[in-house]
Amino acid sequence: MIMKSKLFIMASAALGAFASMGFSAGQTNVAFGGNVPLVCKVELGQAFGTIGPNGIAEIGVAQELCNSRSGYRLVARTSGVAEGASLIVDGQRFAITNERDFVIAETSGPAAKSRAIALDAGNGDGGGNLTLRLEAK
Q1: Cβ density class 68-93: b for 16+ within 10 Å, e for less
Q2: Of residues 92, 47, 45, the one with CA closest to residue 120
Q3: How far is the C-alpha of 95 from the C-alpha of 86, rounded, in Å?
Q4: Strand, coil or helix: what is 90?
Q5: What percent of the chain has a predicted confidence (pLDDT) above 90?
């Protein structure tokens, strides 16, 4: 009982303080703010593949996450890949030019997506390097 009395007295004192400051229940506004850090990352699950009889190597699934309010671009870069090779992302083919960046996907807002990545080896043996990165807009 003593504890309830103390809480009631403290609550009454707090309300009295608000009343003496000129606030009433209908006028009180409370605003909260904060900063959310920008996070943009892409991870490639398996990250290797064996070339099948059709000349295509299933590389893996890219997991993307980016909280940029205006969206992001998924950018790829290859090196050491044979002429005529192409990158296949969710069934869409992209011609490869080694040592150059190329955009393979773009969003207009924050997103978390998964994309299947494969390589058509073209005239080569499927060797080479692939780098993926997200660029916030």
Answers
A1: beeebbbbbbbeebbeebbbbbeeee
A2: 92
A3: 5
A4: coil
A5: 49
Q: Which long-range contacts (CB under 8 A, 24 or more apart) does 31-35 make?
A: none
Amino acid at 118: A
Helices (H) and strands (E) in the chain, counts: 1, 8
Give the confidence band of 51 by pLDDT, cuts at 50, 70, 90.
Answer: confident
Assigned token pair, 34? 């904060």
Instruction: Write out the DSSP string of 1-59.
Output: -HHHHHHHHHHHHHHHHHHHTT--TTT------------EEEEESS----B-TTSEEEE
pLDDT for the residue 6? 45
